[in-house]
């Protein structure tokens, strides 16, 4: 694994938002085995898509992404308290602190459109910077 792909990258594609082409290009050009998604991202996308009555889109996403070799990872139980320190240190919400902690634990590059990660020591990369 090399990249932790943040929720917003997948949502750009699934909701056909402004930067969906850049996100798609990245996911198509990078080997799926180099990509990781957190359990939190997977569930967050489910919540968002279900609220928009896009149940089938969520099921397709799970089939397309997770069955193609993308890694589903989660934060170790003993690392969960780290999210508090990370949130306080970098002024992040829980979602971002969790993503950051996972990136730290697995030593992954954060791929995101979320500028909040720019306040952290790991920073982030946008999809276009990596292809």
UniProtKB/TrEMBL annotation:
Mg(2+) binds at residues 6, 96. Its cofactor is Mg(2+). Its EC number is 3.1.-.-. It is an enzyme of class 3 (hydrolase). GO terms for molecular function: hydrolase activity; magnesium ion binding; RNA nuclease activity; toxin activity. The keyword Magnesium applies. SUPFAM superfamilies: PIN domain-like. InterPro entries: PIN-like_dom_sf, PIN_dom, VapC_family. It comes from the Bacteria. The keyword Transferase does not apply. Gene3D superfamilies: 5'-nuclease (3.40.50.1010). Keywords: Hydrolase, Magnesium, Metal-binding, Nuclease, Toxin, Toxin-antitoxin system. Residues 3-122 form the PIN domain. Toxic component of a toxin-antitoxin (TA) system. An RNase. Belongs to the PINc/VapC protein family. This is Ribonuclease VapC. It comes from Thermodesulfovibrio yellowstonii. The lineage of its organism: Bacteria, Pseudomonadati, Nitrospirota, Thermodesulfovibrionia, Thermodesulfovibrionales.
